[in-house]
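BUG: 3D viewer hangs when loading the predicted structure for this chain

Environment: internal workstation, default settings.
Expected: structure renders.
Actual: progress bar stalls at 90%.

Input used:
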Amino acid sequence: MKKLAENSPLPRDISFANEVTNLMALEHENITKLVGFCREAHTKVVQRQGRYVAVNIDECLLCYKYWPNGSLDLHLFGM
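Structure tokens produced before the viewer hung:
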């Protein structure tokens, strides 16, 4: 699973669409397949400069096919 960054310079819906579009267009033996996604929006109350404000939170998760040989970082960097 991959959670899209909350501090992306692009709006979340654009970065989400870009990620999905790129993954759907690529086919290579070393690139795992996108299985599905989850997108959830909710409102959270936070304190900012001494005041409480309502903030819209939009979370996106991408679900990939299981890679049976472990994480790529283990193959690149070892234990």
